[in-house]
Amino acid sequence: MRDKYKRLYAEANRIIGDKTPLKKDCGQICGGECCKGDSETGMLLFPFEESAFTVKEKDGVRLCVCEGSCNRYERPLSCRIFPFFPYVNAEGKIKVIPDIRGVNVCPLVSNFNDVRFDRGFLYRVKKVGRLLYADEACRKFLEETSREIDILIALTEL
Ligand code: SF4
Ligand code: SF4
After folding, report:
1. Domain residue limits at 68
2. How many domains does one find in the chain?
3. Distance from the alpha carbon of residue 27 to the mean position of ligand 1, in angstroms
Protein backbone atom coordinates (compact mmCIF):
# COMPACT_ATOMS: atom_id res chain seq x y z
CA MET A 1 0.00 0.00 0.00
CA ARG A 2 2.66 2.47 1.09
CA ASP A 3 4.83 1.69 -1.94
CA LYS A 4 1.86 1.99 -4.27
CA TYR A 5 1.13 5.54 -3.10
CA LYS A 6 4.78 6.45 -3.00
CA ARG A 7 4.94 5.55 -6.68
CA LEU A 8 1.68 7.34 -7.42
CA TYR A 9 2.84 10.64 -5.89
CA ALA A 10 6.27 10.29 -7.41
CA GLU A 11 4.54 10.10 -10.78
CA ALA A 12 2.28 13.07 -9.94
CA ASN A 13 5.30 15.10 -8.89
CA ARG A 14 7.15 14.07 -12.05
CA ILE A 15 4.21 15.28 -14.16
CA ILE A 16 4.17 18.70 -12.49
CA GLY A 17 7.95 18.87 -12.73
CA ASP A 18 9.25 22.40 -12.35
CA LYS A 19 6.08 23.99 -13.72
CA THR A 20 4.44 26.70 -11.62
CA PRO A 21 1.21 28.69 -12.13
CA LEU A 22 2.97 31.54 -13.96
CA LYS A 23 5.95 31.57 -16.27
CA LYS A 24 7.68 33.68 -13.64
CA ASP A 25 8.00 33.23 -9.89
CA CYS A 26 4.67 34.32 -8.43
CA GLY A 27 6.24 34.37 -4.96
CA GLN A 28 8.06 37.54 -5.99
CA ILE A 29 4.72 39.24 -6.54
CA CYS A 30 3.09 38.39 -3.24
CA GLY A 31 6.09 37.76 -1.02
CA GLY A 32 5.39 34.04 -0.90
CA GLU A 33 2.15 34.33 1.07
CA CYS A 34 1.27 30.65 0.74
CA CYS A 35 4.55 29.61 2.33
CA LYS A 36 4.28 31.71 5.48
CA GLY A 37 3.40 28.73 7.60
CA ASP A 38 3.90 28.19 11.30
CA SER A 39 3.32 25.21 13.54
CA GLU A 40 -0.42 25.99 13.56
CA THR A 41 -0.87 25.77 9.81
CA GLY A 42 -0.34 23.13 7.21
CA MET A 43 -1.06 21.90 3.76
CA LEU A 44 -3.79 19.39 3.08
CA LEU A 45 -2.45 15.98 2.20
CA PHE A 46 -3.81 13.67 -0.48
CA PRO A 47 -4.69 10.09 0.56
CA PHE A 48 -1.72 8.13 1.92
CA GLU A 49 0.65 10.97 1.10
CA GLU A 50 1.46 11.33 4.80
CA SER A 51 4.21 8.73 4.88
CA ALA A 52 6.72 11.34 3.77
CA PHE A 53 5.76 14.19 6.15
CA THR A 54 5.25 15.39 9.71
CA VAL A 55 1.51 15.20 10.00
CA LYS A 56 -1.09 16.62 12.35
CA GLU A 57 -4.86 16.37 12.38
CA LYS A 58 -7.01 19.46 12.48
CA ASP A 59 -10.82 19.33 12.37
CA GLY A 60 -10.60 15.76 11.12
CA VAL A 61 -8.30 16.45 8.17
CA ARG A 62 -4.66 15.50 7.83
CA LEU A 63 -2.26 18.33 7.28
CA CYS A 64 1.41 18.39 6.57
CA VAL A 65 2.98 20.66 9.17
CA CYS A 66 4.43 23.64 7.37
CA GLU A 67 7.01 25.74 9.18
CA GLY A 68 7.28 28.26 6.38
CA SER A 69 10.13 26.66 4.50
CA CYS A 70 10.83 23.27 3.05
CA ASN A 71 12.85 21.31 0.60
CA ARG A 72 11.18 22.34 -2.64
CA TYR A 73 11.73 18.90 -4.13
CA GLU A 74 9.89 17.22 -1.28
CA ARG A 75 6.94 19.54 -0.89
CA PRO A 76 3.44 18.00 -0.81
CA LEU A 77 1.34 17.73 -3.93
CA SER A 78 -1.06 20.41 -2.61
CA CYS A 79 1.82 22.88 -2.67
CA ARG A 80 2.87 21.84 -6.17
CA ILE A 81 -0.57 22.45 -7.66
CA PHE A 82 -1.57 25.46 -5.51
CA PRO A 83 -3.60 27.57 -6.12
CA PHE A 84 -5.41 25.14 -8.43
CA PHE A 85 -7.36 21.97 -7.83
CA PRO A 86 -8.35 19.14 -10.20
CA TYR A 87 -12.07 19.58 -9.62
CA VAL A 88 -14.42 16.71 -10.50
CA ASN A 89 -17.79 17.80 -11.83
CA ALA A 90 -21.10 15.93 -11.50
CA GLU A 91 -20.34 13.97 -14.69
CA GLY A 92 -17.00 12.79 -13.35
CA LYS A 93 -15.02 15.10 -15.65
CA ILE A 94 -11.91 16.78 -14.32
CA LYS A 95 -11.60 20.51 -14.67
CA VAL A 96 -8.70 22.51 -13.31
CA ILE A 97 -10.07 25.42 -11.32
CA PRO A 98 -8.57 28.06 -9.03
CA ASP A 99 -8.99 26.72 -5.51
CA ILE A 100 -11.38 29.04 -3.72
CA ARG A 101 -10.00 27.83 -0.39
CA GLY A 102 -6.92 29.89 -1.20
CA VAL A 103 -8.78 33.11 -1.97
CA ASN A 104 -7.69 34.88 1.22
CA VAL A 105 -4.05 33.94 0.72
CA CYS A 106 -3.33 33.96 -2.96
CA PRO A 107 -3.75 36.97 -5.27
CA LEU A 108 -3.83 34.61 -8.25
CA VAL A 109 -7.15 33.27 -7.00
CA SER A 110 -8.70 36.63 -6.21
CA ASN A 111 -7.53 38.05 -9.60
CA PHE A 112 -8.07 34.88 -11.55
CA ASN A 113 -9.71 36.50 -14.58
CA ASP A 114 -6.89 39.00 -15.07
CA VAL A 115 -3.95 36.64 -14.80
CA ARG A 116 -2.18 34.88 -17.67
CA PHE A 117 -1.44 31.47 -16.26
CA ASP A 118 1.05 29.06 -17.74
CA ARG A 119 -1.15 26.74 -19.77
CA GLY A 120 1.47 24.02 -19.50
CA PHE A 121 1.06 24.08 -15.74
CA LEU A 122 -2.75 23.84 -15.99
CA TYR A 123 -2.43 20.96 -18.43
CA ARG A 124 -0.16 19.11 -16.03
CA VAL A 125 -2.49 19.64 -13.07
CA LYS A 126 -5.25 18.12 -15.18
CA LYS A 127 -3.03 15.19 -16.04
CA VAL A 128 -2.31 14.67 -12.34
CA GLY A 129 -6.06 14.84 -11.68
CA ARG A 130 -6.64 12.06 -14.20
CA LEU A 131 -3.87 9.98 -12.70
CA LEU A 132 -5.31 10.32 -9.19
CA TYR A 133 -8.87 9.77 -10.39
CA ALA A 134 -7.90 6.28 -11.49
CA ASP A 135 -7.14 5.38 -7.87
CA GLU A 136 -10.16 4.65 -5.70
CA ALA A 137 -9.06 6.47 -2.52
CA CYS A 138 -7.83 9.48 -4.47
CA ARG A 139 -11.00 9.56 -6.57
CA LYS A 140 -13.09 9.70 -3.39
CA PHE A 141 -10.87 12.47 -2.06
CA LEU A 142 -11.12 14.48 -5.30
CA GLU A 143 -14.90 14.07 -5.37
CA GLU A 144 -15.39 14.99 -1.72
CA THR A 145 -13.11 18.00 -1.99
CA SER A 146 -14.89 19.10 -5.16
CA ARG A 147 -18.23 19.01 -3.35
CA GLU A 148 -16.72 21.13 -0.54
CA ILE A 149 -15.51 23.57 -3.16
CA ASP A 150 -19.05 23.64 -4.64
CA ILE A 151 -20.40 24.69 -1.26
CA LEU A 152 -17.79 27.40 -0.82
CA ILE A 153 -18.46 28.77 -4.31
CA ALA A 154 -22.20 28.74 -3.62
CA LEU A 155 -21.63 30.66 -0.39
CA THR A 156 -19.62 33.34 -2.17
CA GLU A 157 -22.50 33.81 -4.59
CA LEU A 158 -25.09 34.46 -1.87
S1 SF4 B 1 0.21 32.90 -2.60
FE2 SF4 B 1 -0.28 32.53 -4.77
S3 SF4 B 1 0.88 34.15 -5.84
FE4 SF4 B 1 1.78 33.95 -3.80
S5 SF4 B 1 3.47 32.47 -4.02
FE6 SF4 B 1 1.63 31.33 -3.37
S7 SF4 B 1 0.75 30.62 -5.32
FE8 SF4 B 1 2.15 32.28 -5.82
S1 SF4 C 1 5.31 22.93 2.72
FE2 SF4 C 1 6.82 24.16 1.64
S3 SF4 C 1 5.88 24.67 -0.33
FE4 SF4 C 1 4.26 23.95 1.04
S5 SF4 C 1 3.42 25.82 1.98
FE6 SF4 C 1 5.02 25.04 3.35
S7 SF4 C 1 6.90 26.10 2.76
FE8 SF4 C 1 5.41 26.34 1.09
Report:
1. 2-156
2. 1
3. 5
